Amino acid sequence: MSTNSPTFADLGVPQSICDALARQDIHTPFEIQTATLADGLAGRDVLGRAPTGSGKTIAFGIPIVANLPKARPHFPTALILAPTRELADQIHVELASFSKPVKVGVVYGGVGYGKQMRLLEQGVDVLVACPGRLEDLIERGDVDLSDVERVVLDEADRMADMGFMPAVRRILDQTYNDRQTVLFSATLDGDVAKLTRDYQKNPVRHEVGESTPDITLADHLFWKMDKAERTEVTALAVTAEWPAIIFCRTRHGCDRLTKQLTKLGVDAVAIHGGRSQNQRTRALDDFTTSRAQALVATDVAARGIHVDGVTLVVHYDPPEDHKTYVHRSGRTARAGAGGVVVSMLTSDQMKDARGVMRKIDLNEPITEPSIDYIRALASGGPKPERAAAREPQSDNAGSNRGGAKGKGKGGRHKNQRHNTNSGSNKSGGNRSSGNSAGGNGGGNASGRRKPKSQGQGSKPGGQRSGGQRSGGQRSGGQKAGANRSRSSNG
Questions:
Q1: CATH fold of 15-212+460-484
Q2: Domain spans of the chain?
Q3: Could you give the CA distance from residue 6 to residue 10 in angstroms, rounded to a whole number?
Q4: Which fold has domain 218-447?
Q5: Of 28, 236, 352, 356, which residue has the fewest beta carbons closer than 10 angstroms?
Q6: Is 420 exposed, middle or buried (0-12, 13-18, 19+ CB in 10 A)?
Q7: pLDDT in tens, 255-296
Q8: Cα–Cα dist 210/120, whole Å
């Protein structure tokens, strides 16, 4: 294998897009981009499997926008479908960072129709959408898909899990027959295989990484404690190592824990299906700009959220099964970076936890909590800069209340381990038994791999994945890979 990676220009990416990426300090393609960009730009159907955080959005986004014909009002020429509002928003932001003069818009449920109707009336070239809201807008006569010549289905397996496949099929049936169809999924069997059979033409198949998130780079800690201790131990863990995502089983549990963590001095925000879209958007923005140290989420709401630089995952409530444990834990230790995964276990949950470990080939002891051990696992790098605190909000418990200590301006997560040893030791919080290594065999963070950085890598300029098609010309333009869109979350 060549030691010199190809550049975006080498792969046929238009110079205007190369320049836009360079302004974001993105110069070298990730593996999935190297694999799929040439086929996407040539207008071929692409079937891709790549893990979260692998750079899929740019992989399918560049072929979608390159040489795309101008759309008429109400008639987009490219469509990206995604399973959740948060993913749709992230795709929209990332594509807009390099798509000019191509206009990218997004529609999803949970918000009013007015702004989306005006967007479609003005005309949008690339429409990023969740299936539910898109069908509503079609039924109302606000959008017509007959001009769509490039389609992307992002996280198709999640759309299947969430029951969107009938809607996805109805939507695809309304697009241009000779379209380019790009599909990305974590798995390529079952409903996804049927979709490929029925809606793709001789797709080029590219697979990158493991079929499930690689959680082996993370340190996995299983801590036994009384139920009443979980909140304080969680606060101490987040104070020692953040940014953190904390998983709760219910919406009410998310809101309650967020309030409790805030009282304990942790800047936490909640995200779940019971919150309005504005609340969810604000919470995600607070987390990605480091106003908030922790995002407290349900499993469903966390689907499709892609945030680089997460260094701690906490299973506050145990996962439903081993697959859920893997997907939760895969939020950290991405792209070669390290991470810590902590499970809070009461005595009646330890048997199930051991069963989960057996199914995923983990062999970790269940120990007393040790906040010192979490600190020891950190790389010693700086924490993300904190964005300026928001004015206090009164509409929800989960939004950030401001008033956090040490907030600076405009920071973004970097895809690397962060930690400062000062100010994070709330002394009494170390409920460690004599072995502060917590039974992890005295793991040493010094051996942790550093991220393969591509720019600052977390939010709007940072890479995500995708694959597009170009080439096949139809009325004045290349056929590029379809966009990614996502449907509203319930």
A1: Rossmann fold (3.40.50)
A2: 15-212+460-484, 218-447
A3: 6
A4: Rossmann fold (3.40.50)
A5: 352
A6: middle
A7: 999 999 999 999 999 998 788 878 888 998 899 899 999 999
A8: 39
